[in-house]
Amino acid sequence: MPSQKSAGVAAVLSFFINGLGQIYNGQFFKGIMLIIIQAINGFLMTVLIGYIFFPIVWLYAVIDAYRSANKINDRNNRRF
Fold first, then answer.
1. What average pLDDT does the segment 9-34 reach?
2. How far apart are the first and last CA of the chain?
């Protein structure tokens, strides 16, 4: 049986490092892309536009990690 994912752990991981919750959920490409996007947003903060996009991507990553873990768990529960 595939392992259950904790939605809370996924959200907390993405809260501290964007993309880490997605990697925990097994979504490696999405996680790496979020890490890269946030690094670019960090550099864009020097020209102020990063201050707009950084929190948007951060919030997206936290919510997406939480919802993805729940979807994975629902899918695993339906199989058995």
1. 96
2. 8
In whole angstroms, what is the distance from residue 19 CA to residue 11 CA?
10
Structure tokens given for 77: 């529960």
Q: What is the rounded CA–CA span in Å between residue 25 and residue 20? A: 9
In this prediction the pTM is: 0.89
**Encoding tokens for residue 28?**
């490696």
CA atoms within 13 Å, Cβ hemisphere of 44:
13
Helix 50-79 to helix 28-44 angle (10° resolution) is 170
Instruction: Please report the pLDDT score of residue 29 as a whole number.
Output: 97
| Distance in angstroms (rounded) separating the CA atoms of residues 69 and 24 | 9
- The CA distance from 55 to 53, in Å, is 6
Dist CA 9 CA 6 (whole Å): 5
